[in-house]
Amino acid sequence: MDSLDTEVLKHALDWCENGHAVHLATVVKTWGSAPRQAGAMLAVRADGRVVGSVSGGCIEDDLILRAQEGRLPSKPELVLYGVSQEEAARFGLPCGGTLKLVIEPLEPHSWLEQVVQTTQQQKLIGRWLDLKSGQSTLTDARPGQLTEVNESGCHFVYGPHWRLLIIGANQTARALAQIAIMLEFQVIICDPREEFTADWDLAGVSMQSGMPDDAVSAIRTDSRTAIVAITHDPKLDDMALLEALISPAFYVGALGSVRNQSKRRERLLSFDLTEKDLDRLHGPVGLAIGSRTPAEIAVAVAAELVQVRRKFEDERVGGLDQPPG
Asked: What is the DSSP pairing of strand 251-254 with strand 225-229?
């Protein structure tokens, strides 16, 4: 299973290789309450078929109409939607939101194929687009690097900016991994029990066969890493948590009832962890939505990951820019 952005690029590549005229629209800057953020993409064919989203509203309709009428640009072009309140209302942008897009024609044998291959391997890759020449150059990229635009060009980053280490290769882990990939996480599963990992076959997921505490160190846990322990085996879960709770991970969670979490806190306090360390632990893991099945638990955990990640991003980015005028 691929991320949603990789799916957009895959469809665009397939359409190009089958002889269709294709344009890619990418959000490069937003002001106000824009429905999609910088980096959001939409691919549109000349016949109006689309994949992806840049607004979830009327901007898609406008791009489809322009494609069908042959009015999309023959070279990369910056387009602004929603500068005025009237335009914002016309294009379905809330609260006077404004979007700046770059719209570019795609070629079958270009940067597209390598970007798709790289992101399918759960790796990051960057692209510099020269707005004057229309040429693209692939570059290195780092987690957290944002889409950037200036007078001469745009820099895009494709692939997962976040990592999720799941302790335990069970049904919940499988469901959570699939959701997390769509949410742009690089997913790593750690489980030293061969009977659980022997038939693991989920594409795009890395496996760590060592002990959980070693895995937390081995992946070089940073502030863009989340760690979730779901083995139901205290010997394994607790080992991971001992390392995770003193790491820079932005999220640490553990599966288990309120009663089990209380016992876990007692066990962990008998080691070198402090009450402050344990306050970082999300347990029971996930939002309280009444989940019971593995899939429902995965949804609850993924929702909490999004909630915590979004808070982290908002604190890092700060206030919204003012629209042009």
From this structure: parallel
